[in-house]
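TICKET: design request
STATUS: open
ATTACHED STRUCTURE:
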C-alpha cells in the first residue's frame, strides 16, 4: 500500500503522516491538511458490497491513515461503530419520494456529526500514543449546538482525554442545551457563555493560540486539540458511508456494476459533500454532487458565478447547522481545483479574510462541472417535509428537507433520472418544533418534549433514546460565565 502524507493547503511546510495531522487539527500556517493524492479503492465495489459497515470503514481508512497498523485501525473502528448506534447497519437507507435517503443520524446524538465524532477520539488517542505524546489531550470546542454534543458523547470517558465545551447560553435550542448539560463522564465540562457563538469561538481561539498558556499546560501534563470539522480525522470517516451506500445499492440490485449515481448533500461547512467528492475520486461512480444550501446561499452563488462572497446578511433559518457564511472545508476543494497549488489557494484565502470575497479562474471553474449548486427557501423546505410525509409517511428533518427540495428542483430543471442518494443529516426529533411547524401542528403552548410526543403519535416513529433519556436526566453542568472568564474556567476544570 502506498504511503499517504499530508500537507497544508496554504504552504509548503513539509509533509507529515496522518497521525500527526489528526493530532494538530489545523496546520500551523492556518491551512487545512490535505492528502498528497487521493488513493484508489483496492477492492471492487461488488466485493465491498458484502462487507459490514465496520469492514468497509477499514477498507477506506487504511488507504488514508497509512501510518496506522491494522490492529490500531480496527481497534478505533470497533469502539466507534458499536451499540452507540441504534442499528447494526450504522448508516441505513430508506427509499421515499423517488430517492434514497442515507440516514446518518442513528448515533448517540441523532445528527450526522456522530459518524465522524464517534471515531475521532480513538483516532486521536491512538495518534497520541504513536507520537509518544505523554500529555493528556484537552479538546476545546465552541459550539452552536450539534458539534458540542456529538464531541461530548464521543470523548466522554475516553482515557487520556478531557473535553470542554462552551456554548452561547441564550443561543441554542432547548433540546440542544438539555443534551449538553446532562452529559455524563468525569472528563467532560460544559459551560454556558453570556455572549453569542462568535464570542465563544473567539475565546476558544484565544486560549488555543496563547503560547504562554501552552507552555504552562505542557508543564502540567496537558495539551489542547480540536474536534472541529477541519480535522482530517473527521473528513475521512465521512467518505466511508458514500462507499458503503453505493455498494449497498449494488447488493440490492438497485443499480448494476459501473452505474453512476447522484448524491445530494445539505451543506454548511462543506465537510460532508467534500467527503462525497473524495469518494468519487477514489473510484465510486458518482456523476453529480448536488450541493444544497438554505437561504444562506453563498455556495449556490459560488457554483453559479465562480465568485465566493460572504459580504451579505446572515439569515437565521430552520436549518441552523447550515447557517454559515464561511464554509471552511471549501478551502480543500479550492486547493485541489487550483491544481493542488498551496500558494494560489493561500492568496484566495487571504483575500477572503481581508475583503470577504474572492473569484476563481475560468480554468478552476471548469473543474467544478461535477458540482451542481442549489438552494431552498424556508417555505420550500417546510413544504417538502409536509408533502413527503403526506405522500409516503416518511419523515425528514429540516436540513434533509433542504436537500430534498433542491433535488426536486434539480430534477425538474434537468430531467435527470439517475439513481440518487440524499444525505439525511439529522433525526426529525432533533428539530421537533420546526418539523411540527412544517406539518402545521406546531403548538406554541407546548414545550419541545410535548411536541415530540405529538410527533411520535402522528408519525408512529418512536422517540429516539437520545431525546427520551434527556427528558428526566439530571443536570450535571450548570455553570454560566462571562466570556472574559473562559481561560479561568479551563484552569479550574483542569485544576491547574
Ligand atoms: C453539520 C450539519 C450539516 C452541515 O454539514 P457540513 O459538513 O458542515 O456541510 C447539515 N445538517 C446537519 C444536521 C448538521 O449537523
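STATUS: resolved
RESOLUTION: sequence designed for all positions
ATTACHED SEQUENCE:
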Amino acid at each position: 500500500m502506498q504511503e499517504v502524507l499530508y500537507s497544508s493547503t496554504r504552504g509548503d511546510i513539509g509533509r507529515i503522516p496522518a497521525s500527526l495531522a489528526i493530532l494538530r487539527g489545523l496546520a500551523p500556517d492556518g491551512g487545512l491538511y490535505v492528502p498528497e493524492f487521493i488513493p484508489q479503492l483496492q477492492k471492487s465495489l461488488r466485493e465491498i458490497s458484502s462487507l459490514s459497515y465496520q469492514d468497509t470503514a477499514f477498507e477506506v481508512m487504511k488507504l488514508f491513515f497509512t501510518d496506522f497498523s491494522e490492529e490500531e485501525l480496527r481497534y478505533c473502528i470497533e469502539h466507534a461503530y458499536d451499540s452507540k448506534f441504534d442499528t447494526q447497519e450504522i448508516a441505513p437507507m430508506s427509499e421515499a419520494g423517488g430517492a434514497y435517503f442515507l440516514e446518518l443520524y442513528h448515533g448517540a446524538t441523532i445528527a450526522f456529526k456522530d459518524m465522524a465524532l464517534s471515531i475521532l477520539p480513538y483516532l486521536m488517542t491512538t495518534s497520541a500514543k504513536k507520537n509518544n505524546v505523554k500529555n493528556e489531550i484537552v479538546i476545546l470546542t465552541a459550539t452552536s449546538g450539534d458539534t458540542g454534543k456529538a464531541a461530548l458523547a464521543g470523548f466522554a470517558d475516553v482515557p487520556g482525554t478531557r473535553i470542554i465545551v462552551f456554548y452561547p447560553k441564550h443561543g441554542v435550542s432547548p433540546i440542544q442545551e438539555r443534551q449538553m448539560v446532562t452529559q455524563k463522564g468525569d472528563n467532560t465540562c460544559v459551560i454556558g457563555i453570556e455572549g453569542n457563538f462568535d464570542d465563544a469561538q473567539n475565546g476558544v481561539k484565544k486560549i488555543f493560540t496563547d503560547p504562554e498558556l501552552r507552555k504552562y499546560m505542557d508543564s502540567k501534563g496537558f495539551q489542547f486539540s480540536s474536534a472541529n470539522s477541519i480535522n482530517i480525522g473527521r473528513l475521512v470517516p465521512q467518505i466511508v458511508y458514500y462507499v458503503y451506500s453505493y455498494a449497498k445499492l449494488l447488493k440490492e440490485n438497485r443499480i448494476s456494476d459501473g452505474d453512476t449515481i447522484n448524491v445530494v448533500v445539505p451543506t454548511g461547512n462543506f465537510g460532508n459533500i467534500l467527503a462525497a467528492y473524495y469518494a468519487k475520486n477514489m473510484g465510486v461512480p458518482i456523476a453529480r454532487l448536488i450541493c444544497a444550501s438554505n437561504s444562506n446561499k453563498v455556495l449556490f452563488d459560488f457554483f453559479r458565478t465562480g465568485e465566493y462572497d460572504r459580504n451579505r446578511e446572515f439569515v437565521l433559518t430552520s436549518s441552523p447547522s447550515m447557517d454559515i457564511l464561511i464554509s471552511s472545508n471549501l478551502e480543500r476543494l479550492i486547493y485541489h481545483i487550483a491544481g493542488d497549488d498551496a500558494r494560489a489557494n493561500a492568496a484566495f484565502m487571504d483575500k477572503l479574510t481581508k475583503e470577504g470575497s474572492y473569484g476563481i479562474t475560468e480554468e478552476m471553474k471548469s473543474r467544478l462541472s461535477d458540482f451542481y449548486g442549489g438552494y431552498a427557501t424556508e417555505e420550500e423546505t417546510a413544504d417538502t417535509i409536509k408533502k413527503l410525509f403526506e405522500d409516503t409517511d416518511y419523515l425528514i428533518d429540516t436540513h434533509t428537507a433542504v436537500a430534498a427540495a433542491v433535488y426536486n428542483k434539480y430534477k425538474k430543471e434537468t430531467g435527470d433520472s439517475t439513481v440518487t442518494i440524499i444525505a439525511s443529516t439529522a433525526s426529525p426529533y432533533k428539530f421537533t418544533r420546526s418539523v411540527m411547524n412544517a406539518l402545521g401542528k406546531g403548538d406554541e403552548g407546548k414545550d419541545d418534549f410535548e411536541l415530540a410526543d405529538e410527533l411520535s403519535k402522528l408519525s408512529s416513529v418512536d422517540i429516539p433514546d437520545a431525546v427520551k433519556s434527556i427528558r428526566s436526566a439530571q443536570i450535571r453542568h450548570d455553570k454560566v460565565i462571562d466570556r472574559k472568564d473562559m481561560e479561568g474556567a479551563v484552569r479550574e476544570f483542569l485544576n491547574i
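CLOSING REMARK: The longest helix spans residues 232-251. The two ends are 45 Å apart (CA to CA).
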